[in-house]
């Protein structure tokens, strides 16, 4: 199940977490619980203007994860509504 | 590299742990395990809004409360070295991960 993420290793991914945060980073590792290890990630907030916060390496706990996608050919908009919390 | 292997490398170094409640625990890792339970020392707790709570010497965080852990790049390189050493057959670390308390 989590082995599906093999193809995402070392690629730029976009992640949405349950608190409505949007991260973009390079996926360096993951495990069966879908804990993720991202290097050089950016947290993007929409307030509604886009605000990027750089973080260094981050481990995201799997049970806060909602969505992972490959960020290959889209660019983030400069403005948008804030992502709601997903409980 | 497994996320938990990065925690190996982060033992003894400073991390920033955000809990699901939004509180941020900044401190040094003394102990970590595969449930993401942490024992931290020299901790500063900050509320999500940014009002600083207080500083405590030592605390234990249950893993299920963790949202994310921010680690330093030196922890990542340390984790890489541990992984490479294990590959060379010197044996992977077994059981719980322990670190010595920083004086």
Automatic annotation (TrEMBL), chain A:
UniProt KW Iron-sulfur keyword:
no
- The record places domain Sm at 1-74
Instruction: For this UniProt record, give its keywords in alphabetical order, as a comma-separated list.
Output: mRNA processing, Ribonucleoprotein, RNA-binding
InterPro entries, from UniProt? LSM_dom_sf, PTHR15588, Sm, Sm_dom_euk/arc
Pfam families assigned: LSM
| One Gene Ontology molecular-function label | mRNA binding
Which Gene3D superfamilies does UniProt cross-reference here? 2.30.30.100
Gene Ontology biological process terms in this record = mRNA splicing, via spliceosome
Output the Gene Ontology cellular-component terms: precatalytic spliceosome; U4/U6 x U5 tri-snRNP complex; U6 snRNP
The answer to keyword Disulfide bond applying to this record is no
Taxonomic superkingdom: Eukaryota
PANTHER family reported in the protein's UniProt record = LSM1, U6 SNRNA-ASSOCIATED SM-LIKE PROTEIN LSM8
Family according to the record: Belongs to the snRNP Sm proteins family.
Stated name of the protein: Sm domain-containing protein
Species whose genome carries this gene: Stentor coeruleus
From TrEMBL, chain B:
Q: Which GO terms describe its molecular function?
A: RNA binding
- Per the record, the domain of life is Eukaryota
Q: Which UniProt keywords apply?
A: mRNA processing, mRNA splicing, Nucleus, Ribonucleoprotein, RNA-binding, Spliceosome
Extent of the signal sequence: none
What does the entry list under GO cellular component?
Answer: spliceosomal complex
Please name the GO terms of the biological process aspect recorded for this protein, alphabetically.
mRNA splicing, via spliceosome; nuclear-transcribed mRNA catabolic process
Q: Where is the Sm domain?
A: 2-75
* Alphabetized InterPro entries for the sequence: Lsm4, LSm4/Sm_D1/D3, LSM_dom_sf, Sm, Sm_dom_euk/arc
**Subcellular localization:** Nucleus
Main subcellular location: nucleus
Tell me, how does this one assemble? LSm subunits form a heteromer with a doughnut shape.
User: Which family does the record claim for this protein?
Assistant: Belongs to the snRNP Sm proteins family.
The entry's function note states: Binds specifically to the 3'-terminal U-tract of U6 snRNA.
Q: What is this protein called?
A: U6 snRNA-associated Sm-like protein LSm4
Q: Which organism is it from?
A: Stentor coeruleus
Q: Which gene encodes it?
A: LSM4
